[in-house]
Amino acid sequence: MMNTTDQQSKIVLVTGGSRGIGKSIALNAAKRGLGVILTYNSQPEQGQAVADEIKGNGGKAVALQLDSADTQSFSNFGKQILQVLGTEWGRENFDYLVNNAGIAQRTLIKDTTEELFDQLVNVNFKGVFFLTQKLLPLIADGGQIINISSGLARFAFPGVAVYGALKAATEGLTRYFAKEYADRKIRVNTVAPGAIDTEFGGGKGDEDHKQQLASAIALGIEIAGGIMI
Ligand SMILES: NC(=O)c1ccc[n+]([C@@H]2O[C@H](COP(=O)([O-])OP(=O)(O)OC[C@H]3O[C@@H](n4cnc5c(N)ncnc54)[C@H](OP(=O)(O)O)[C@@H]3O)[C@@H](O)[C@H]2O)c1
């Protein structure tokens, strides 16, 4: 993204912006002067709290409900976005989409049910594809899409086979979206975080899991201010 001065009139939509990494993206975007539309799924109060924090600091933010697995709701979500853009910003489009919402898996291949498989596909892959497809007409030419992947797309770790494979698939999708929307000068990129200590997949407290993750990273993991680095 560009420098702070250039960002004053820009708008970012962050899915899953109510907690964890998405919350951090939303708060930091607002600090740079961007208008923020963030989504929550099951916890409206968390979404509203992030929007209120941004507004309390002099920024502009709106929290909306979105279930990435519910593709049928995307048309209506697009209409909500259009309405919010008009009322809050007097615009008909926004600049940046961060596809951050995601769910985790900690189940070995032998125990992975078809139901869990479908859940992971719907939120982490199918939802990303169809939400982006639906929102592209609302993204300004020259805008940007960032798909949040994971280090687990790039190395294998027991218990996350479907999750890791879907993140790798999302990285593939990223290149295809970039190719097909290059004529509109829309950049599409992946960010693949390492282990971040959020409430992801049930959250904190699993020291064995952290040690296992640390062993897969050359410099290990240090806990710093709640963030595993
Ligand atoms: N944490 C890590 O170590 C790590 C590492 C690499 C990549 N990532 C990726 O980073 C992204 C964010 O992870 P996180 O750790 O910040 O997760 P998190 O703390 O569990 O937060 C998840 C966010 O996604 C929303 N969400 C959950 N299910 C959803 C659904 N079906 N539809 C729409 N939104 C939904 C949640 O909203 P509600 O609370 O309202 O349900 C929440 O805002 C994910 O894509 C994850 O794969 C995480």
From TrEMBL:
<dbReference type="InterPro" id="IPR036291">
    <property type="entry name" value="NAD(P)-bd_dom_sf"/>
</dbReference>
<keyword id="KW-0560">Oxidoreductase</keyword>
<protein>
    <submittedName>
        <fullName>NAD(P)-dependent dehydrogenase (Short-subunit alcohol dehydrogenase family)</fullName>
    </submittedName>
</protein>
<dbReference type="Pfam" id="PF00106">
    <property type="entry name" value="adh_short"/>
</dbReference>
<comment type="similarity">
    <text>Belongs to the short-chain dehydrogenases/reductases (SDR) family.</text>
</comment>
<dbReference type="InterPro" id="IPR002347">
    <property type="entry name" value="SDR_fam"/>
</dbReference>
